Amino acid sequence: MELSLQCALNTGAFFRTGEASTVNGQFFVKRDGKKWARMIFDGEFESLKAIHETNTIRVPKPITVLDNPLGGAVIVMEYISMSGLFGLPARLGEQLARLHLHNEEVTRKCDPEKYVEKFGFHCVTCCGFIPQDNTWFSDWVTFFEQKLQWQIDIIQDDRELLDLWIKLKVKIPSFFEGLDVKPSLLHGNLWHGNTAQTPDGGVVFDPAAFYGHSEFDLAISKMFGGFRSEFFDAYHKLIPKSPGFDTRSKLYQLFHHLNHWNRFGTEYRSSSIELMETLIAM
């Protein structure tokens, strides 16, 4: 497969990201020249594959990941002609809910040997370029605490952040009292820039998948706008809000603010600190 793709795409080397038209059809080729590109694309490949196999929400079907002689790596996937998400927000909300319900309502009942009963993922995935520790845990709170700890450890030497983290960490379990969290397959980075549509429905891409709490995927969708109310209404028809939803949404947004701090710099420091102070005061 790799050799045939290299020949079909004329891949002595990969120069740019974009559509590749060949005698074997159209593909989308994404290139990254950084030294950690293979890790990023291996995680994206496995994320796309896992979501694609649920047959709940459309993603580009992944084909392969290749090392690039020019440096870094490329990921080759199905080419999908798509446009911005304007006319089908309710359909996408329903599709996302179906994805989140799939492990519990379809796999557990129809193919119990494939049911995922823990939180994590079988490989490293990257949110942006930040690798995520997806080590399996049987307890969601423990798993999520280590996701936050990883982000804080990267920042390292911010005394105010560390002091607030000590106070917040002991309070996190209280946000989940009385809640039985089941592992759902998540997109992991579902801001509006990672969504689009075709005439047949919504499409999502650039995932950083793992099995976690379904509410996690909704948190970043509210951070940057772009999702209409119909999206959330359709989602919550299938997965109603549980008590404490709004508080946990802030907790999950904290992860993304910390991740953005690590990716883009201290412009996200103040929002991270403010969220931590708000959560501690709750």
Describe this structure in words.
The protein is α+β, with helices and mostly antiparallel strands. It has 9 helices and 10 strands. The strands form 4 sheets. Strands 1-2-4-3 form a 4-stranded antiparallel beta sheet, covered by helices on one side. β3 (62-67) and β4 form a beta hairpin. α4 runs parallel beside α8 and α6 (215-221) packs across α8 (245-264). The longest helix is centred in the middle third of the chain and has 22 residues, at 89-110. The radius of gyration is 19 Å and the shape is globular. The mean pLDDT is 90.
Keywords:
282 residues, alpha+beta, 4-stranded antiparallel beta sheet, two-stranded antiparallel ribbon
Summary of the model, kept short:
This protein has 282 residues and is an alpha+beta fold. The protein has helices at 2-8, 37-54, 89-110, 140-155, 159-169, 215-221, 229-238, 245-264, 269-281, and strands spanning 18-22, 25-32, 62-67, 73-78, 125-127, 130-132, 184-186, 195-198, 201-204, 210-212.
Helix count, DSSP H or I runs of 4 or more residues: 9
Q: What proportion strand?
A: 15-25%
Query: How confident is the prediction overall: mean pLDDT?
Result: 90
> Order of strands across the biggest sheet?
1-2-4-3
